[in-house]
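dumping this here so i dont lose it
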């Protein structure tokens, strides 16, 4: 049920982001489902957080740069 709820949450969050012209990147399924990446179904370890940051950096960096210039 956790996976189904994460998918439902992701769809709603993406819809909200689109409606509000926000950048959206769905990490669900992007970080490898390995024991070194997760404490539980949804809680990242330090290694998992590092992988999430690596994936998010190219998405977040342009937004930060644009907003910092204003």
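and the seq i came up w/
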């Amino acid at each position: 049920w956790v996976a189904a709820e994460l998918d439902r949450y992701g769809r709603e969050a993406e819809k909200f982001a689109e409606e509000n012209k926000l950048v959206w990147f769905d990490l669900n399924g992007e970080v490898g489902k390995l024991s070194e990446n997760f404490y539980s179904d949804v809680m990242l370890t330090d290694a998992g957080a590092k992988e999430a940051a690596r994936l998010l950096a190219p998405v977040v960096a342009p937004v930060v740069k644009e907003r910092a210039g204003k």
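The longest helix spans residues 46-68.
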